[in-house]
Structures are given as C-alpha cells and as structure tokens.
C-alpha cells in the first residue's frame, strides 16, 4: 500500500448554474433535458496547463494527427528518443502531459512515451467528445507511431486502453490507473450529480446509442477485460472519490492475466505522481 496522503482529492462537483439549467430543461420537456445532459456529459473542461507539466510540453515533439475514423485531429506528444515506446492515455478533462511524472521515469529507464490530447481536450480542437473517439485516436496513433511495448491509461484513458486492446491495439502489457468500469454506472453517477430523476440515466444511454449507433455497455471496462489475454496491472486508490475502488476490483476479477495494486489516500489524481505507484509500474513492465 502507498503511504496515506493528506486531503485526498474531493469528488468533482457540477456547477450550480448547470444543475439549475438542467432542472429548467426538465420542466420544459424530457427530450430537452436529455439533450442538455448529453451535451454536458460530452463536454470536457479544458484546464490551463500547470507549471509542473511545462518541461514535458516543451521537450516533446508535437504533431497534429488526423483520425479518419472520427474525422477529427488530435495533438500528439513524442517525448524521448528511444525506440522502445510506451503509449500514455489521459482521462476526462486531462491532457497529454498529465502523466508527466510517469513519463519522466520511463525516459530515465530507456523508454520513449507517446501521448496525445484527446478530441476536445488540451490543444486538440473541438468542444465535445466521447470514449469511442478516445479509442479511435489510440488505434490511429498506433498506426503512425507504433508499435508500442506498453500502454498506460488513467481514468477514462484506462477504459479506452482496455477497449483499444480488445479492438486490436498490440502491446505486451497494459496498466490502468483509477479506471472507470460499467458505463451505466457512470451515467447513473452523472445524472445523480446533475440532480435529475433516475429515469434520465436510461434516457441518456438510449440517446447515445441512437446517436452513435452502438451499445454503450459494450464499452464497459470489465467486458473488454474478459477478452484480453495480455498481462494487465490494475491500480486504484481505496479512497478515490470519483471512481469507486469497486470498479478497479471488478475489472481485475474479469482479467485472465491481471494484477491488482491498491493504494490509500491518493485519490483520483495524486496517484499519478506517487513514487511507490510509479515504481510498481516500472517493476510490472520490466518483468518478462
């Protein structure tokens, strides 16, 4: 277990103005409220890049990569000179430099990292996106920068890595950190935070399924895990306020060749910079 941290990250809250707007929409019509909820659900927050990520941003070779499957472009970060490449995938409202501490340690151990700003994130254009676009971006980046030896994903990036492996991403091992699991649970939690009636969770799922012509549950991490044969290290914090540790445990239970590492007091984001966690990742990828 990692050392307990003080004041773990609190769960993100939806601004009151958005909650009020959702209730107004619901008063007008369920269809309007569903569309409003879908818009908020698919709109990430673009945070200002913190100073601690400046070095990785400055030293990376950055390139716009077009992803034909979704008709969008993403900004990629090529960090390091080694031929041994590791793919890094950030989570919702994250950035390609967010896993910089992990990237720095990988560079020190002879690896190069390739990361990217997912659609509507960071320097990539757009205002809305969804997990299927994360996955499409990963698969296109593999075509242009691969092969990768390993893939590491955080939060939604962890779900995306598992789904990408299921869909053909070829890596020797994968690491997922604070990954979400069941899509319906994620929708339920979102609707709860939006303070709408529970029925909107199903309405939102049906809305997305009609819009994207796919079944949302097919993207649940545990379902992807059931089809994966490579070794996967699942890392999750017992005190994660955004994604319950039950998600990580459930994913692990559905892996054929999984390992589970639980931490305490690191929350959802501090876990990315914890030295014990990073050491565990390095040990995992170096084991033959």
From the structure above, extract its key features.
single chain, 288 residues, alpha/beta, Rossmann fold, 11 helices, globular, AB_hydrolase_fold, AB_hydrolase
Q: Could you please describe the fold and organization of this structure?
A:
The chain has 288 residues and is an alpha/beta fold. It has 2 domains: 12-41 and 183-217, no CATH class; 47-182 and 220-286, Alpha/Beta hydrolase fold, catalytic domain (Rossmann fold), CATH 3.40.50.1820. The protein has helices spanning 16-28, 30-41, 54-59, 100-108, 131-145, 156-166, 183-194, 199-212, 221-225, 245-253, 275-286, and strands at 61-67, 72-79, 85-89, 112-117, 150-154, 173-177, 232-237, 258-263. The longest helix is centred in the middle third of the chain and has 15 residues, at 131-145. One of its GO terms (molecular function) is acyltransferase activity. It comes from Flavobacterium johnsoniae (strain ATCC 17061 / DSM 2064 / JCM 8514 / BCRC 14874 / CCUG 350202 / NBRC 14942 / NCIMB 11054 / UW101) (Cytophaga johnsonae).
CATH level-four homologous superfamily name of the largest domain: Alpha/Beta hydrolase fold, catalytic domain
Number of domains: 2
Can you give the helix content as a percent range? 40-55%
| Rg over alpha carbons | 18 Å
Unreliable spans are: 1-10
Kindly report the oligomeric state of this protein.
single chain
- Helical element count? 11
In round numbers, the mean pLDDT is: 93
Record the strand order, biggest sheet: 1-2-4-3-5-6-7-8
Main pleated sheet: 8 strands, mixed
CATH T-level topology of the largest domain = Rossmann fold
Can you count the beta strands? 8
CATH architecture label name of the largest domain: 3-Layer(aba) Sandwich
Specify the structural class.
alpha/beta
Q: Class of the largest domain, according to the CATH hierarchy?
A: Alpha Beta
Approximate strand percentage: 15-25%
How would you describe the shape?
A: globular
Q: H/E order of the elements?
A: HHHEEEHEHEHEHHHEHEH
Question: Span from first to last CA?
Answer: 23 Å
